[in-house]
């Protein structure tokens, strides 16, 4: 058995939009180079030179790193490892928002599920990293996130075998009581490290306006950043991490980091249980939720298409009617 420390953190790295982004990225790289963790999953690393900065400053402790390119902006997901990375892949989600939501940006990022396969001395470990569609005021993307998480369960089931060691980190933008999180636990045999931790804080809010200088007081404290693991891992401790930058009044990000200490036992056998009736009940519930979201999305799409058609008619119909009128009554226009 071996101890493995894992960190997941949404770094809030939007250039020109996120506050103090250059200062925070530099401080993040300085903090990570202390080598406290073995595996790190980052989200919202939107600027590639920030990824290069972090890799350059931490290469003595994390010589293996990978950025998951996707979409127009890049997926924002990056992973660092103390252990050799022997393979990588990235699968983009089928539905990642709408292109006309320009100020949201999720569609342009091409969000999806990234994976690094690391060569741990005891056994290979699949380390997945994702950032699901963000939530916004009057949120209409709840079903989108549920669909993305369901697609994730399908990828996990088909890309790994029941006896493979799996760590799944990321910003899920789901609270623990939502259907997507329940489905992930039930359909994949993965466990939320917070639920199985021997030692943990009572309120593990990774979004918390009380402790974060970048959040509005109207934000609701919640836990939306997770690390799920297969049966090969026991979680001895989970805690918040990467909060205030040492010596400064600002935070590393608008999220709190989520750190876990795992005990890795490669000899544990994990068998998929498909006989559980709740498995199929969950599939039915997911299907209902996703279909309701699809119907709502189709209504929105038809409305948008209708508006585009009206706009086109408004612009071009006067020109068309003028040409027709001129051809029928030329004397009105020509002397």
Automatic annotation (TrEMBL):
Gene Ontology BP terms: sphingolipid metabolic process
Gene: SMPD2
Subcellular location: Membrane
Pathway: Lipid metabolism; sphingolipid metabolism; Sphingolipid metabolism
Identification of the protein by name: sphingomyelin phosphodiesterase
Membrane spanning stretches: 305-333
EC number per UniProt: 3.1.4.12
Stated family: Belongs to the neutral sphingomyelinase family.
Any matching Pfam family: Exo_endo_phos
Enzyme class: hydrolase
Topology in membrane: Multi-pass membrane protein
Gene Ontology, cellular component aspect: membrane
Endonuclease/exonuclease/phosphatase domain segment(s): 7-255
One MF annotation (Gene Ontology) recorded for this entry: sphingomyelin phosphodiesterase activity
Organism annotation: Hydra vulgaris
InterPro entries per the UniProt record, alphabetical: Endo/exonu/phosph_ase_sf, Endo/exonuclease/phosphatase, Sph/SMPD2-like
UniProt keyword list: Hydrolase, Lipid metabolism, Magnesium, Membrane, Metal-binding, Sphingolipid metabolism, Transmembrane, Transmembrane helix
The keyword Hydrolase belongs to this UniProt entry's keyword annotation: yes
